[in-house]
From TrEMBL:
Source organism, top-level taxon: Bacteria
Subcellular localization, as worded in the UniProt entry: Cytoplasm
Reaction it catalyzes: D-glyceraldehyde 3-phosphate = dihydroxyacetone phosphate
GO CC annotation terms, alphabetical: cytosol
Location (main, coarse): cytoplasm
EC class name: isomerase
Biological process per Gene Ontology, one example term: glycolytic process
Pfam families: TIM (PF00121)
Record-given protein name: Triosephosphate isomerase
Keyword flag Isomerase: yes
Assembly notes: Homodimer.
Length: 275
């Protein structure tokens, strides 16, 4: 069994909903409305829910959750915020880059987070570790928090190269990345071979991956920065039945949820388990 020392600091649990290209604008709006009502009454302290709709739905979802200034999400004893995330970002603020979305455009919509390097973008859109590196830097320069996705393929796992894959992606993706005291980074361990399959990895494997990530991070950041500014989470076939196995204080501090975040009843059950 992987042993873990709890961090003395109070850590937020991040629940990230990646809606991918699955919902219409109206469906995304309806789901955001339902979740905003749910969190007003049922979510307890130190949980942050990040909604990542398609680009076309960002305006509507941003209006619903209100951003940092909304009094609805500064409620007495509940330290809970619905935050807005993007599913991707480009690494220039402006220019002749047809079809891309810049950090400045996202900030106008009160986007706080951006998913970087998801395996589907690596697989279908040829995104590589260099692209990931540039996008992480663009996020940090624009006060956005990158959600850096890494994970091994089935073939890499079969050959016993999970650690090699994680070390490669981290080393290349974090090259020359610096974190200031107020900057945050989320690293999502998402084994490629379980995404969308309905079966998560053994929790022990996820914890071992988190330990590998922590060791690699020491090559880039001080222990204080790692403890205070970097969060490691798990993603891949997360549901209400298994989510508690993947939230371990000091190692895994949240989850990246795909298909189970598309249905209010399923996603709210995940929230209930972790609250």
């Amino acid at each position: 069994m992987v042993k873990n020392k709890k961090n003395n600091m109070t850590q937020k649990t991040h629940i990230i909903a990646n809606w991918k290209m699955q919902l219409s604008n109206q469906e995304a709006t309806d789901l955001a409305v339902a979740l905003s009502r749910e969190t007003k009454s049922s979510v307890q302290k130190q949980i942050e829910i990040i909604l990542c709709p398609s680009f076309t739905a960002l305006v509507q979802v941003s209006a619903i959750i209100g951003g940092d200034s909304s009094p609805d999400f500064r409620r007495g004893q509940n330290d809970i915020r619905l935050q807005l995330g993007a599913q991707n970002i480009f690494y220039h603020d402006k220019g002749a880059y047809t079809g891309e979305i810049s950090p400045l455009q996202l900030k106008e919509l009160k986007v706080k987070y951006a998913i970087i390097g998801h395996s589907e973008r690596r697989q279908f859109l040829n995104e590589n570790d260099h692209d990931v590196n540039l996008k992480i830097k663009a996020c940090l320069l624009n006060s956005l928090t990158p959600i850096m996705c890494i994970g091994e393929t089935f073939e890499e796992r079969r050959l016993g190269k999970t650690a090699v894959a994680l070390i490669r992606q981290l080393t290349r993706g974090l090259e020359d990345v610096k974190l200031e005291n107020d900057q945050k980074l989320i690293i999502a361990y998402e084994p490629v071979w379980v995404i969308g399959r309905g079966q998560a990895v053994d929790p022990e494997e996820a914890l071992q991956a988190a330990q590998i990530i922590k060791r690699v991070l020491l090559d880039f950041f001080t222990p204080e920065i790692i403890a205070n500014n970097i969060t490691i989470i798990y993603g891949g076939s997360v549901d209400a039945g298994n989510v508690k196995n993947f939230v371990v204080p000091g190692l895994l501090e949240g989850v990246l949820v795909g298909s189970a975040s598309l249905i209010f009843e399923k996603f709210s059950k995940i929230i209930d388990v972790l609250k």
